[in-house]
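Exam review. A common question shows you a sequence with its structure tokens and asks you to describe the fold in words. Practice with the pair below. Do the first one on your own.
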Amino acid sequence: MRENRLRTLWKSGGAAVNGWLAIPNSFSAETMAHQGWDTLTIDMQHGMIDYAAMVPMLQAISTTNTVPVVRVPWLEPGILMKALDAGAYGVICPMVNTREDAQKLVAYTHYAPRGTRSFGPVRAVLYGGADYPQHANDTIVTFAMIETAQALDNLDDILSVEGLDAIYIGPSDLSLALGCTPTFDDLDPKASDAVEHILARAKAHGVVAGIHNGTPEAALRRIAKGFQFVTVSSDARLIAAGAQQVMGKMRAGGAVASSGTY
């Protein structure tokens, strides 16, 4: 079976640099994948990407060594299983708030006897190999998102669930849940303390910690603290930032916007 390079990277003590895909398009996904990201996450929770768009995006990522990950819309067995059957090597599940939630997540993403995942890896065997069914349980990666006050209260119970590989912090939702300003990097003290607490408890349980970031500088600081999965920006934000940089230079150089109508 094809190795999950994310697991290999973690075993060596390294941190994965993850890109975020919000544009429902296979060519943009392929272009991102060829830029050297360790992993790329297709975001089905927020934005415009549905299952029909996700599959060709996974195929596009497969033209490279970048590991394909999917953030599913919710803790629902159908979409988790379909994402894995389509060839995702990792799944990120939002709003995991209790031990029971975490147990369901692990069950839905693993074949019996370790779980209740239904058998039908229609594209996964093309991506992972003919022996995918025998090795999937030990190859795919399961992330639980920690982003609510309830999840903080139940953190140790969640982290102690066998088969949960990693947690992923959504700083904006976590900040909102704690009555703070929603942001990625410059968190209010209460939210910042919560992030530090989550990281410390994840380390204690031997669970990999990941987090969303707005800038490379913030991501590098968090790697230094012990995060092993850091997301930096998204395809949509990178397009906007690049376009703004070009137009800023053009305006500064004297280019005048057209007054015509279109």
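Now try the second one, then compare your answer with the model answer below.
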Amino acid sequence: MRPLTLLSCLCFAAITVAGCQTPNQVNSVPLAKVQKDLPADWITLKPEDWRMAYLDAPTRQSLIALRKSLEAERATQAFEANGSYSEATYESIRQMNLSCNQSYAANAVVIGEDLSPELAGAALSVNEAYMNSTVVGDVNLRQVQDDWARLWLMNKPSSLSPYPIVNTGGRP
């Protein structure tokens, strides 16, 4: 291969790798998008609830096992005396709820309901579209004063006067 051809191939490869950005594959829906569907507590959710079907099998099995351990803990004398679970059990419940929420958001059906959750249009994310409209609005509002001056013909002195006009622009 000639040196020029090799150099051009290397440049093309570097531009292709560094310059072309591809969006990341969606592997879960942001929890804010599915917040309305998430239960307040997965532990108290009935097994026949439709949301249980969206959990992956290991998470569902862990949830069932945690429910059984909670049932066993409620039968102990310590639970009867305190009337509440241990702090470790409450932490397990919090972790299970978090795990169930993440499993639900990563389900293929849930992802398929909105394949581009972060895009407002074809090319811009919600934040990029917001910033774009904010910048355009700011520029437009700053131009209002100039437009108002042009409307009232106050942006420059009249050139129709037969008398010499003093330059008021501050420039000699």
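Model answer, second protein: Residues 32 and 38 are 10 Å apart (CA to CA). Residues 26-113 form one domain. Full marks require stating both points clearly.
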